[in-house]
Amino acid sequence: MTTGHNSTLADVLERCRPVPPASPNILKTLLAVQSALGHIPMSGILQIAQVLGVTDAQVAGVLSYYSDLRTQPTGRHLIRACMGESCMANHSARVLRAIQDYLCPAAGDASQAERFTVDTMSCAGNCAMSPTVMIDEHLCGRVTPSDVPSLLEAQVLRRKTEGGRPKAED
Amino acid sequence: MTPIRLYLSNDSSSRAAGAEQLADAWRDRSEIQLIHTSSRGAFFLEPMVERDTPGGREAWFNVRPNDLPRIVAGVGGTKVAEIPFLQQQTRFTFANFGITEPLALDEYQSRGGFKGLAVAQSLSPEAIVDALRLSGLRGRGGAAFPVWKKWQVAQQTESEQKYVVANADEGDAGTYSDRMMMEGDPFRLIEGMMICARAIGATRGYLYCRYEYPAAAWAMQFAIQKAREADLFDCDDYPFDLEVVIGAGSYVCGEETALLESLEGRRGVVLAKPPYPAVSGLYGKPTIVSNVLTFATLPNILAQGGAWHASLGTEGSRGTMALQIGGRVKQPGLVEVPFGLTLRDVLDRFGGGMAPGARLKAVQVGGPLGSLFPESQLDIPICYDAFAGAGAILGHGGIVVYDAETDMVDLARHFMAFTADESCGKCTPCRVGSVRGREILERIQSGQGTSEDLMLLSDLGETMKSASLCALGGRAPYPVLTAIEHFPEEFRLKAKG
Fold first, then answer.
1. Count of CB contacts below 8 A, A vs B?
2. Residue B95 in this model has a pLDDT that exceeds 70
């Protein structure tokens, strides 16, 4: 997300190579790849399978099963609106709409897509602060639709000054 | 001048409420020293700042950075012991919350920490299970299975390797007590897991934490490292070690067989039981999988005795329950009370009524698979048997209050869509039934539905209830069917034909 992704797939896999008698752990390996590269490229499935000594179908099966494993790169900031029941009860759908309206003024705006990825999540465990928006790993609570623009800008700027990946275009 | 000690919660939700901004704003103020504690769970008052006074802690509520002079001057504080939301609770499992620094091992020990483990070490494994039997403790994750029965099976199964696994895949929306425990009192969870390890003869433990809880996973890793450095895992020459494993966003991994599949790195698919994990679990070895709060309840039970625990609560539901109030209430937060209060009591006494301008429409207890209660049915006592009798579940103690603006058809569609998304695909009633259920509800929502669709939905619900492999498919129809039962006119209005 906001950290630099400089390792290569081969580097990561070298660190994940199972040492007998430990059995290969596909999920752990995929999470390590995602944490290093930001996503798990579909083109890497065969290489991952070979290092782990499992079939490519097994790797693809695990990859497609878990919703937090991403096969596409995300924008520099991942914005997730919580759609858990407590947030729903506090009308989080309106917050999501406000985020979409603010970040997607024109369909197909590539520069915005590089900057932000908007997604939903099913519960952030922040239910006493509903509605919740998670910006990268930062939890925001009691979010109203009118808070959205200032919140997004403040959080993005804040992370930049805190030494997240320095990006002039943030 | 000695700086004034101010206590500020470091819980994720407190930080989201503004505790983080306070810490940033006050970082360089020499007149104060900030102590980062766990949260008391009164989240509607957060960010809350406390300081010591001769009469005990005083608190300032919903604090903003420019409130500091007032706090330093000691003006306008409220005695913590007189906050009604906290005063009326019975805190045992959450007794340290708001008081201690979560990662300070010495503070945990000075408040009775590891006494339960010491007692367990003085008992035979069979006597530990007996204490549990006497306590009447039932699993806090949702299934409410008697804990001692599970332990006895694992204890009596011969194996050179056994495992203890904490289920921290707190996926039910509306619940956050596991997250609070891991962030706020991690040594309590570690102690509970060690008591279990001792009882069944396990030497290795895992904590399976959901991907959405990075702060909780970090706190647990830190606490485990501290426990290891303090040689706590080596006590009486009995080796034990503990590892945190992160999930990747699958609700059904909260089911124990799916969780173990995921822990081994595979798709988190539910397996048919038997064999039960207590006989053949992780890597085919006897394994106890229990919820975070189940483990966190154990230190007190061992330290104070099974009879003490059994003296709290009701006939079939012994002890206290951590309820988590959310949705459109005035006072959302965590409440620990003995079983037996009615749902209405809890909402009135602790929830403080509805948020300004909102009117109550329905209350859902037990997460996305929990039944809906209309206003007229809130007098149900909070205990396992009363809920089971009403076809409902207490689950993990999540209570979500919906207001009059809630569109029940859309909510029902949301529930079915959730199951369709999260179904592991192993059994047909859940895999196909949830998709068909979602389609029917989408049809009704778009105005294309008929009264036959409502009958079809009820038929489908019955099939899913009786033929699904696990609680995801088996419980998924309940919120939908209770929505139709209690708010039939909304469905009829949209399904005219």
1. 143
2. yes
